[in-house]
Specification:
It is an enzyme of class 2 (transferase). The protein contains three helices and five strands. It is of the alpha+beta class.
């Protein structure tokens, strides 16, 4: 059921679908410098966090926590950054990014630092497969 939802063209261009959570598409950002996933609630016309229903805010929070745990475990990330900016892409979306003390932007935010490094075909396929398996398992517990 589409319910009027469509993915913003910029998100579609920059990401690949990993899997679906209870509420959101989970997308892999095409930047190999970071384990970087984006959650996009499958609801039409969402711009800001407060546009979500109370129930959907709870679900998105649970999805973000599950994704954060997967990133920490899978990539041994020092921490995860979880952010909803929406200044460039107005559709509500939530970034969950694994961070490392030796990453190119540490300790600052990742935005505006360096140039994205797209995944090679094999690396992208391997990362997608690993994340898909981890997330499908994690979402079973939500």
């Amino acid at each position: 059921m589409n319910n009027g939802f469509s993915l913003h063209p910029q998100l579609a261009a920059d990401t690949t679908l990993v899997t679906d959570g209870p509420l959101s598409h989970v997308l892999l950002m095409n930047d190999a410098r970071y384990p970087w996933l984006i959650l996009v609630p499958k609801r039409p016309d969402l711009v800001d966090y407060d546009d979500l229903s109370i129930e959907d805010r709870i679900t998105l929070g649970n999805e973000a926590a599950a994704v954060s745990k997967v990133i920490k475990r899978r990539f041994d990330a020092h921490k995860t950054n979880v952010a909803m900016l929406g200044n460039m892409v107005p559709q509500l979306h939530c970034h969950v990014v694994g961070r490392f003390k030796d990453d190119p932007a540490w300790p600052g935010p990742i935005w505006g630092v360096g140039t994205a490094e797209p995944y090679g075909e094999d690396a992208g396929r391997d990362r997608l497969a690993a994340l898909r398996a981890d997330l499908v398992s994690a979402f079973k517990h939500l």
